[in-house]
Design a protein that fits this description.
With 132 residues, this protein is α+β, with helices and mostly antiparallel strands. 37% of the residues lie in helices and 13% in strands. The protein has five helices and three strands. The protein has a three-stranded antiparallel β-sheet with strand order 1-3-2. Helix 2 crosses helix 4. The N and C termini lie far apart (63 Å).
């Protein structure tokens, strides 16, 4: 479909509301996946916006070096960079404390099961487990 549009000289018009919805999803998640199937009527995570329009907006942001792009098995993966985050905050008039879920710091606590971790120790090996 995209090839037909380009060869026919037609343009895909993206309304301000659609662009805003795409940018809001990008700043909320920090990454967007677009299936390379331009026949679908709407993107799975951005309702009322066609996948080709999502792809075109993200491609434009990538050309400004605000996103990283990867393509695999018929899917485009776009990841927000720090510069892109600043750009979208400015574009949507969002505060500095709003951070995408992919950029949030994760506090992970690891619980060690001491019973499983107990192995015979050799006092001469300075606390390293005996391999046997």
């Amino acid at each position: 479909l995209l090839d037909k549009l380009i060869s026919a000289g037609e343009m895909v018009l993206i309304h301000k509301l659609e662009r805003r919805l795409i940018l809001e999803e990008l700043i909320k998640e920090g990454a967007i996946v677009v299936k390379k199937d331009w026949t679908e009527n709407e993107h799975p995570s951005i309702k009322k916006v066609q996948p080709i329009k999502v792809w075109m907006v993200l491609r434009s942001l990538k050309s400004k070096d605000l996103l990283n792009e990867s393509f695999n098995w018929g899917y485009f993966y776009f990841f927000l960079k720090k510069e892109g985050l600043d750009y979208i905050r400015k574009e949507l008039h969002i505060e500095e404390n709003v951070v995408p879920t992919t950029h949030e710091a994760v506090n992970r606590t690891f619980v060690i099961n001491e019973e499983k971790d107990r192995r015979p120790r050799d006092p001469n090996r300075q606390g390293k487990p005996v391999r046997g």
